[in-house]
Design brief:
66% of the residues lie in helices and 0% in strands.
């Protein structure tokens, strides 16, 4: 059995234990202790999961996929496989709406895991070069993850569209909307109502929003939402 297959088995079986143990090796060990998966020896774990960054990344990626899968129950059936031009345009609009539904469902699914997600993102954003700016996180992994989650949602919604400026604009706007909505959800000031974060997602995802600032009551409010989310991540790494 290949290492990639073995890793996938561990990561999948560890998912039920994330709410208690987080995106850490403890979740994988809990799956082993429960008998859901067996291990040859400790060296195997060390080879498959050499560091916490890799563990958090693998567990979080699978967690995101399962969250979208849960959200997919709200999707509508796809339309004709051979649409004309008018049907295609309507289908694109419908698919974009379904992408929004998937991303909104993903946010709601994440609520019980908020603190663990913050910890995992703190691990992923930690600078790899410990000799330079050792304690300053980089936002790139968070942005890449938002893009991957949105890409998976687009695939699940079967939105093909026509490649061009509009297609990339929609895709980028949806990615940014999910990123900011999740930061809002992970904010230290989160009041427990995830539907507020979904509201952020929907407003930022609307066309002609200029990255959403025109759809929010004030630019300062937009900055506060983003900064509070980042503040939680910074605090978790001791800044």
């Amino acid at each position: 059995m290949s290492n990639s297959t073995r890793i996938r088995q561990f990561i999948t079986q560890a998912q039920p234990y994330i709410q208690q143990h987080g995106f850490t090796l403890r979740s994988i060990r809990a799956a082993i202790t429960s008998g859901k998966i067996t291990i040859d020896n400790e060296e195997e774990l060390a080879v498959l999961f050499p560091n916490q960054i890799e563990i958090s990344k693998q567990l979080l990626t699978q967690f995101d996929k399962e969250g979208l899968k849960v959200a997919s129950s709200s999707l509508l059936p796809s339309e004709s496989s051979h649409p004309d031009s008018e049907e295609r345009n309507a289908g694109d609009r419908r698919a974009i709406e379904q992408v929004e539904l998937l991303l909104a469902g993903k946010l709601l699914h994440s609520v019980p895991f908020r603190e663990h997600i913050v910890d995992a993102l703190a691990v992923l954003t930690a600078a790899k070069d410990r000799q330079a700016f050792s304690s300053i996180p980089t936002p790139l992994p968070i942005m890449q993850r938002a893009w991957q989650v949105t890409d998976e949602a687009i695939h699940m919604a079967k939105w093909k569209g026509r490649l061009g400026t509009d297609w990339y604009t929609h895709r980028t706007r949806l990615t940014n909307a999910f990123l900011m909505a999740e930061l809002h959800l992970l904010s230290p000031d989160f009041q427990g109502d995830a539907h507020q974060s979904v509201h952020v997602l929907r407003r930022l995802a609307r066309p002609h929003s200029v990255f959403g600032t025109q759809m929010i009551e004030s630019a300062s409010q937009w900055v506060n939402w983003g900064s509070r989310g980042w503040l939680g991540i910074f605090r978790s790494v001791g800044l």
